[in-house]
Write a structure and sequence with these properties.
Two copies of one chain form a homodimer. The first copy, chain A, is of the alpha/beta class. Chain A has 20 helices and 18 strands. Chain A has helices at about 5-15, 30-35, 50-60, 70-90, 115-120, 130-145, 160-165, 185-195, 210-225, 250-260, 305-315, 340-350, 365-370, 390-400, 410-415, 420-425, 440-450, 460, 475-480, 490-500; strands at about 20, 40-45, 65-70, 95-100, 125-130, 155-160, 200-205, 225-230, 235-240, 245, 265-270, 290-295, 355-360, 375-380, 405-410, 430-435, 485, 505-510. The longest helix of chain A is centred in the first third of the chain and has 18 residues, at about 70-90.
Chain lengths: ~525, ~525
């Protein structure tokens, strides 16, 4: 068996059966193995950033890694932006990066570059499989490393001769290192803090879904502590019937205000909340200076276990969490407003849908408006590298074929990975993409003021405007095989969103906020 | 003066007056300086790979660096693929990468990553400007380093507080280190080699244009040596009235055949010719085993000076170079064939135009067909990182506003940086883009066989096909403000190419090779 086939079979044996790819010559033996190893689902992208973002979305929804298959250093490089977001989400991912044959590298051919050096910036584990015999065991190790602790990115570099040579062997799965349990002293200290007033829990990662979120709801009910989450979270379960967790706003003034009464912050799988950017004369840490910050469980530790033990210590195991009621709002009508857009989306959110949110400034009212909508998952951009939502929606849709995906995307951010629409069409994914077409990098106008860059003159302003020429998102979607419509007011938006969510396959709605 | 303004003014002082950008919050002070420093032309892109490719095209045409302005690590990462090609072309480029404020980095905010580590893979010079006072001098140094020797990429990381703090100072230009002259022994040895039969010169970089190319033509005329160039070359002047240089084919068998009679290869600003990929059972070096390889001038050395001295030693300063005659071909007609497409292009090539070639398999007949066309420049993908042509055409058009640009692009490769069309429209550039829409990664079908990946079964084949759904390139262009048309045979292509080249502004022609 050639090395590439041993690698694919070892991935399957380790439970990895989805690959998002944009392959080239050095990956042909992996591609060739797909006809013999039919358990591997391979999804083609026209650009590598789509493949890596899709792997991120898949991992966030399943907790299991998908693989990518990328073409040497430049192929990996095109995927880095979305791997950056995945790293911040602690998403398990296994990158397979094809490389020149081991004996060919020394000639320094045109496509050659230092793949491992670039991979090191976002991967926790990087290895070059220097022989066909290594490929299988390395694949098993890559999966185990991706799943170890809080999860992360493994990158396995596969030289062409390691792929095509005979001598490959299928490796058995390895057991990933589990999250560490925290010691009892931390439970004792957290319990003491939560008995005081002005306490809050800052949650992230696995604490924002499932049983872990329920446990935090009990803790809040028993102690009166606030439940908070950072602005950037990998995934949260929310809406009717769920325990509510307040996300800290992105904009620094409301963020500081939200935390001004928090005197004790117990962090569970979260780190101290910081401003997304530095702004002259404003603090970097968002908590008040006298706030006591305490890590109950670091991201790599077992937060759910810690909260469970904390509940026991407090005698609060049976405390009833407060659950959000379902509330229907009146259907808004007329010209676009941000609250109106948020209300339409809240009303139309299908039960159990997954929202991938990169709406940037256009979506600022959404979190509040959807708090009492039908239960749903919400995915955010954890690393701030834009062009995130459409690729992540692909992966989430592949992971959850029985759920609707709602992808909320700015027109500026959408253009970074506009090729994602083609993969949605090719795979017939149930993704409704809403493009907020305000024809500007609107957020930068605010940031320009926030960093005190002075008067916004015409030449500076022209670098923040993308309306000349105007992008036709309906045409961009149809050109790639996705049905699309443009809406010009709330009534049209409401009707089109209902129609799009009501039938299978990918759709795009351009919300024409300008012109 | 704030650091960002000092930086922009120092770039101007060093002769750098074009910036290709996709900025974010940390770059707002650079953007703000544009209204005060009007000498800097700033060109907006919707994706960073467009900006870096444009800087590559600009540098190849002018020999001077443009700058990019990129948003932290992910912004740089999106630009790496085209920086990889620029590195292989030795194009001078100055990347300015915004970074978090120096005091904010220690909080490890979401967008933070190790920018310098990633930049090191393609940049010859990397520095972080740790204060406003450093920004100006560092900018001058970045330009000088980009121009030193054979040229290359400088990356200057600019923390937000170094940009916004007062204390910036405009720096005077620095003198770049010149190319080294080769010693006389090499002239003597090369002269001896060229007197023998079976000799050839392998040229690259600056040897393929202007006076250097003329000198090589004299050398060939005087000695009978073949003039060769690698498949991947930054830029070559060719066509009627020019000295012809044969490019070594991409496909390995014809490449080996082209070199089978070369017994002595004198390399001038070139390296030993190697196969683009390794293939099982085939050699990596393209020259015959007994071929004598000799470096007259390495890429960082002064090849033109070496050839001039060689001519003197041989007493051949006045040898008359053989110049290509102008030959018009009969206008082809009927259904698409590759020779027919090549003939249409050769006929329609405007005098003094610049061709950026990423036509991949569809353009295999082009080099031969255009040998006797009107004089023109030809730019190729030096690094093999695809999505190269449209961005590079932008930069070449900005560099040469009085010349027509013809951008030859595959449909597969074009999708990597499809956002380039918007910048062409925004800047009203004279670029005619021809998309060869064969709806497949055609080259990979050949490569699949070449690397002996076995039978091409349906699941493997589906990873090489991009026709499901079919991409509508006319719609993709119009959606971004570029006039476009689809042609279905050679007659339509000829007419449309004539029409497109005959009027100003960007155009796109989809050559519908399939369906």
């Amino acid at each position: 068996m050639v090395g590439a086939e041993a690698l694919v079979r070892s991935l399957i044996a380790s439970g990895l059966d989805v690959c998002f790819t944009n392959p080239g010559t050095s990956e042909m033996h992996f591609v060739g193995a797909l006809d013999r190893v039919r358990e591997m689902r391979c999804v083609l992208a026209l650009f590598e950033g789509v493949a890596t973002g899709a792997a991120d979305g898949y991992g966030r929804m399943t907790g299991r890694p998908a693989s990518t298959l990328l073409h040497l250093g430049p192929g990996l490089a095109n995927g880095i932006a979305n791997l950056h977001n995945a790293r911040r989400a602690n998403t398990p991912i296994v990158n397979i990066v094809g490389e020149h044959a081991t004996y060919h590298r020394r000639l320094d051919p045109p496509l050659h570059s230092d793949i491992a050096a670039v991979a090191g910036a976002h991967s926790r584990w990087v290895k070059v499989s220097e022989s066909a015999a290594q490929a299988g065991p390395d694949a098993a190790r890559a999966v185990a490393e991706a799943l170890a602790g809080q999860g992360g990115i493994s990158t396995l570099v596969l030289p062409a001769d390691s792929a095509w040579n005979e001598g490959g062997e299928v490796a058995a799965p390895l057991r990933p290192a589990p999250r560490r349990k925290v010691d009892e002293q931390r439970i004792v200290r957290a319990a003491a803090m939560l008995k005081e007033s002005g306490s809050a829990l800052l949650l992230n990662g696995p604490m924002l879904a499932g049983e872990a979120l329920e446990l935090c709801g009990r803790l809040a009910a028993a102690t009166g502590a606030d439940l908070l989450a950072p602005t950037q979270i990998p995934r949260i379960e929310r809406g009717a019937g769920r325990v509510n967790v307040d996300r800290i706003p992105y904009v620094i003034e409301p963020a500081l205000k939200r935390l001004e009464n928090v005197r004790r912050l117990v962090m569970v799988n979260a780190v101290a909340p910081m401003a997304f950017f530095a702004y002259p004369g404003k603090p970097g840490l968002l908590t008040r200076e006298d706030c006591e910050l305490f890590t109950l469980a670091a991201p790599e530790e077992d937060g759910a276990d810690a909260v469970r033990r904390l509940l026991e210590r407090l005698g609060a195991r049976q405390a009833a969490p407060r659950r959000e009621p379902l509330q229907r709002q009146a259907a808004p009508s007329g010209a676009f407003t941000l609250p109106g857009i948020a209300a339409v989306i809240a009303q139309r959110l299908p039960e159990n849908c997954v929202v991938v949110d990169e709406s940037v400034t256009s979506g600022r009212g959404l979190i509040g408006a959807t708090r009492n909508a039908a239960p749903h998952d919400w995915i955010t951009n954890t690393g701030g590298s834009i062009g995130f939502a459409m690729p992540v929606a692909i992966g989430a849709a592949v992971a959850c074929p029985d759920r609707k995906l709602l992808c909320l995307e700015g027109d500026g951010s959408g253009m970074y990975t506009v090729q994602a629409l083609w993969t949605m069409a090719r795979e017939k994914l149930d993704v409704v993409t809403v493009i907020f077409a305000n024809r500007t990098y609107e957020i930068l106008k605010g940031e320009y003021q926030n960093v005190r860059a002075g008067e916004l003159g015409p030449r500076a302003l022209s670098m923040l405007e993308i309306g000349n020429p105007a992008l036709d998102w309906v045409a961009l979607a149809r050109a790639q095989g996705v049905e699309a419509a443009r809406v010009r007011n709330l009534d049209e938006f409401d009707a089109e969103l209902g129609r799009s969510l009501g039938s299978p396959g990918p759709k795009l709605i351009e919300v024409a906020l300008a012109g």
